[in-house]
Amino acid sequence: MSDLANAVTGTPPAQAAWAALQARGGQIIALPTLLPAALVLELAGEDLRPRLYFASGPDGAELCLRADLTIPAALQYAETAPHDDTPAAWLCEGKVFRAPKAGENRAPEFIQIGLERFGDPDRIEADVTVFLAAWEACRAAGETGLHVRLADGGLLPRIIEGADLPQPWGQALSDVASHKNALQRVLAQAMGERPRRQISALEHTIADLDPDRARDMVDEVLSLAGLALPGTRGVEDVAARLAARARRAIAAPLPAELAETLSRLIQLRSVGSIGDSLDECVALAAKLGVDLMDWRQAWTLRLDRIEQEAPDALAQAHFEAISPEAFDYYDGMAFDIARGGDFTRPVATGGRYDRLVGEVSSGHRRAKAVGCVVRPARFGGR
Amino acid sequence: MAELILALPSKGRLKDQCEAWLARHGLVLRQTGGERGYSATLDGFDDVQVRLASAGDIGKALLAGEIHLGVTGEDIVREASDEVDLRLTIVARLGFGRADVVVAVPNGWIDVETMADLAEVATDIRRQTGRRFRIATKFTRLTAQFMRDHHVVDHRIIDSAGATEGAPGAGIADAIVDITTSGATLAANALKILDDGIILKSESCLMRSDLAPWSEESRHAARRLMERLKILSDT
Asked: CATH no. for residue B194?
């Protein structure tokens, strides 16, 4: 066992939490504090910018202090793992730096301790191990009155991509299925909740053309009008979106029953048992023509394993289809553990981020991963 | 010892426009230390010390409470802090130094007219290329806030020190946020402003720092100056 290096965190509850994480196994690893700013913003999004502390290197490199442990862990794994599937379990601890929001009364730097697992062949068992590590860390620290919120970042993308939805809505929803904000926006459009925009003659024409002819037409319009297209988007991109937008403007709204089912899935938030919520997901997905039996079985397995090892962990727990505060990079099981159910201030959070290693390494490493962090500064209801 | 510190732009068109505004009210600015001096006096206002500084520095000094009054652009202070309304008061809009902070995209994006279109394009680019839609600007704070308000989630801000309007053409960014007065520079660079893409209609303003040490004497000096400038104020 190794004690927490930082004297500030060396309080008995923090030490006990750290010991509990270690008991779930793993190698203690030091992670970089300074990260390339561009990479962090690319992964976490500009919403994080007002929270970040920036620094300039002597060579002019733009750096930032880490705002969590997951991104530096994913980066370090991507840089050091000899193979894609090399399993690793890393115990990490240290300060993270996040400016408080207006009116938020806390220090801009605080300690996180966490467990990050990469490349586990048995992903469900890895999910369970990480959840149990976080739960046991909170309990070892003496936390009581804990509520658990479970979510699944992969659920809606899977349902929407597999659903039998009329076009153009099926495609439009599928394009944004893993972005919760965009998904709600497109669904509102599909339900005809927003005023229809008038479309031009060009859009009317292009809506019915095949992609090649649509591109030629847009190309001609641009050259006649002397308009330029510098940068990422080419003529085909503009033509494709113009056509898609026109088709959405002309299309009949998504049938009310389908739209209602999707809304209920997005807003699904149980007050009853987790099992009931999962069954409701299965039933709603079935209405859309998607069979979720294997997904349900995987959750049953997770819940049974958790129950076996920590019978009280799910006594106060609920399931939501989308975790409202979670980072977009959680794409599978996700959880928060909070005192008294105040999920704006969880003491522990975690989840599966199967795509992140691929994103930080531009696709050179693709190991699937799951991790959790615990915030000792919030112990004791602070 | 001067009781009131007033900062004015130190050079260029803004300085000329400021002097003309003062002159209209019979106030003559005398630079101490000649044309290149960075302090000045106003005839008949011995208790006012005038500092000449860049518009950016005036904004910072107002926000920090280092000066009592200053003339600078609203865009400058709004970009420098998200606590503008807690730190200073806009006393008068001066009618010059007008500039709009706007969102502009290549004019060939005929499928993009509104911020809602931009939000969709940003998501498309992320999905298709795996990287975020890039916006070049020196107004990083205003841009981030505006994008948040319009639910443009999948973007990255590229800090641009100058010639921002050339960023899309140079392949550095997909779109820009920049200031414009007539739109001519944007048009010359094949860019168009989005219908609802005006972030701020800015102009030069006389601003009062609410954090500056306001003594009875400095208040008195400010009141006299406002009266001369025909500005109604509760200073």
From this structure: 3.40.190.10
- pTM (predicted TM-score): 0.80
Q: Is residue B235 part of a domain?
A: no
Q: How far is A212 from chain B (nearest CA, A)?
A: 17
Contacts of A45 in chain B (CB under 8 A): 132, 153-155
Residues B69 and B119 in one domain: no
Whether residues A242 and B132 touch (CB distance < 8 A) is answered with: no
The partner residue sitting opposite B153, judged by closest CB among A181, A227, A233, is A181
Residue B63 domain flag: yes
Rounded distance, CA B104 to CA B178, Å? 8
Considering its fold, how many domains does chain B have in total? 2
Residue B224 lies in a domain: yes
| Residues B221 and B184 reside in one and the same domain | no
* Domain of B113, in residue numbers: 99-202
Residue B145: closest CA among B211, B209, B59, B83? B83
Chain A residues within 8 A of B82 when measuring between CB atoms: 50, 102
Residue corresponding to tokens 């498309």: B124
Are B106 and B174 members of one domain?
yes
Q: Which of B206, B178, B177, B210 is nearest to B74 (CA)?
A: B206
Please name the member of A41, A45, A185 whose beta carbon is closest to the beta carbon of B151: A185
Binding residues of A for L-histidine: 68-70, 98, 112, 116, 329-330
pLDDT tens string for chain A (382 positions)?
Answer: 455 555 445 789 999 999 999 999 999 999 999 999 988 888 887 878 888 999 988 888 889 999 999 999 999 999 999 888 889 999 999 999 999 987 788 889 999 999 999 999 999 999 999 999 999 999 999 999 999 999 998 999 999 999 989 988 998 898 888 777 778 888 888 888 766 667 788 888 998 899 999 999 999 999 999 999 988 899 999 999 999 888 888 888 999 999 999 989 888 877 678 999 999 999 999 999 999 999 999 999 999 999 999 999 999 999 988 766 656 678 899 999 999 988 888 999 999 999 889 888 888 888 999 999 999 999 987 7
**Nearest-angstrom CA–CA distance, A100 and A34:** 19
Distance CA A372, CA A350 (A): 4
Nearest CB to A238; choose among B111, B154, B170: B111
- Shortest distance, CA A314 to any CA of chain B (angstroms): 34
Q: What is the DSSP letter of B138?
A: S
Enumerate the domain spans of chain A. Answer: 7-153+323-381, 195-252
Residues B53 and B119 reside in one and the same domain: no
Check whether residue B85 and residue B156 sit in a common domain: no
Q: Are residues B79 and B133 in the same domain?
A: no
* Whether B109 and A176 lie within 8 Å, measured CB to CB: no
Distance from CA of A51 to the nearest CA of B (A): 12
Residue B173 placed within a domain: yes
Residues B131 and B217 in one domain: no
Q: Are residues B71 and B58 in the same domain?
A: yes
ipTM: 0.83
Amino acid at A201: A
Find the residue in A nearest to B111 (Cα): A242
Q: Could you tell me the fold of the domain covering A7-153+323-381?
A: BirA Bifunctional Protein; domain 2 (3.30.930)
What string of DSSP letters covers A223-274? HHHT----SS--HHHHHHHHHHHHHHHHSPPPPHHHHHHHHHHHT-B-SS-H
Query: Is residue A126 within 8 Å of residue A370, measured between CB atoms?
Result: yes
Tally of CA atoms within 13 A in the half-sphere of A161 that contains its CB:
9
